[in-house]
Design brief:
This protein is 0% helix and 33% strand. The protein has a five-stranded parallel sheet, with no helix packed on it. With 113 residues, it is an all-beta fold. The protein contains no helices and ten strands. The chain has a single domain, classed as Ribonuclease Inhibitor (Leucine-rich repeat, LRR (right-handed beta-alpha superhelix), Alpha-Beta Horseshoe).
């Protein structure tokens, strides 16, 4: 079982690489409170075992990929305090286990709520 825990709050820089989507057994991707830039790779939607996606308080931009709607085991998706634009994809409303979706403090134009 693979965990990317304790990587939050570390002043990490750079971009999220699409290859993260190859980590099929990844349960927690916690890269919050860093200085990550660029977009959220659509390949993260391939992380079928993911329980928590915590990318809050970075400098991420662009749209939220609709492929995140494939994260059927996700309980927490926190993308707040970035520079995301567009809207919250409709695909996220079909996540059966999702308890927390935080997209606040971005530049989103609308959502499915």
């Amino acid at each position: 079982m693979l965990f990317f825990r304790e990587l939050g709050n570390n002043n990490l820089t750079g971009h999220l690489v699409p290859e993260l989507g190859n980590l099929q057994s990844l349960k927690y991707l916690e890269l919050y409170r860093n200085n990550l830039q660029g977009t959220i790779p659509p390949e993260l939607g391939k992380l079928k075992s993911l329980i928590a996606l915590d990318l809050y308080e970075n400098n991420l931009s662009g749209n939220i990929p609709p492929s995140l709607g494939n994260l059927k085991n996700a309980r927490f998706i926190r993308l707040n305090n970035n520079h995301l634009t567009g809207h919250v994809p409709e695909s996220l409303k079909h996540l059966p286990n999702l308890a927390v979706l935080d997209v606040s403090h971005n530049n989103l134009t609308n959502s499915y709520y």
